[in-house]
Amino acid sequence: MKTIQITEGMWNGLMGKLLYVPLLNILVLFYVWLPVPDLGLAIIALTILIRLVLHPSYASSLKSQRDMQKVQPYIEKVKEQYKDDPQRQSQEVMKIYKEHKVNLFGSCLPMIIQLPILFALYRVFIAGLSTESLQHLYNWFPNPPLELNTIFLNFLHASALTIDLTERSLVLAILAGVVQLLQTIITARYTKTSGKKNPTSWFLYIFPLVTFGIAYTLPAALGLYWATTTLVMAIQQVIIYQTFARQERKVAAQTHHHE
Predict the structure, then answer these.
(1) Do the domain assignments include residue 89?
(2) What does residue 164 show for φ and ψ, rounded to 5 degrees?
(3) I need a labelling partner for 249 at 20 to 30 A (CA). Which of 21, 126, 142, 197 fits?
């Protein structure tokens, strides 16, 4: 089941040389170097590595979102105060952003930077999981494998637990949906606004269902990738937001001390 392919032109093109081929080589490197040659474990390892590499960018994006959230009460007051004067309203809003040093593009630019990498991972996990793709390994690749075994958890020698990563998997689709629900709950917890009900709270339950539906239509490799990257993002969110909270408490304590 392969709905998307990486053509020879893609492998040899700019996107291929910069992303597809390097990511494939790292994936196969994990496949070779891990204690057991399991492609699913290699996908998990590569996904975690990519999330760690993107961590500074992700932290920057969350900081910008938090900054926007903190000035929202001021913006609401300005909108109410100048509701009959749109031009003055815009000027005052921009003044608030400037005074609080809010970067309007800080939350979206890091995500834009991540998109090509995530898109490349998506293609490699769908179309690169075959023995034929091994021809794109670098010439200096150490001990290249003769083939790729696409059966996840095959080393357990329990057929009931194994999953063919090139086929659909109900288990991994459910896992992806559950982990998406967890990550969305964490996001809602740390971004909720006091005194107001979150108007997108219904999305908390819809998006995990959509995630499940999409994951179930794609090869299991994508479900495994989706569940892994979402879980790591959830952990990163908790760490980053707790870091923000510690920094804010420290600033508040120092301010109180000097008063």
Answers:
(1) yes
(2) -80, 115
(3) 197
Q: What are the CA-CA distances from residue 178 to residues 107, 160, 200, 205 (Å)?
A: 26, 21, 19, 10
Distance between CA 178 and CA 227 in Å, rounded? Answer: 8
Task: Using CA atoms of 243, 245, 250, 253 in order, give the dihedral in degrees to the nearest 10.
Answer: -170
Per residue in 81-101, pLDDT tens? Answer: 887 778 888 888 888 888 777
Among candidate residues 252, 254, 243, the one with its CA nearest the CA of residue 62: 243
DSSP, residue by residue, 122-147: HHHHHHS-SGGGGGGS-TT-SS--S-
Q: What is the pLDDT of residue 194?
A: 47
Residue 258: inside a domain: no
Q: DSSP secondary-structure letter at 13?
A: S
Task: Give the global pTM.
Answer: 0.84
DSSP annotation of 167 reads S
Q: How far apart are CA 215 and CA 147, in angstroms?
A: 26
1 belongs to a structural domain: no
Q: How many folded domains does the chain comprise?
A: 1
Q: Residue 74: give the domain boundaries.
A: 8-252
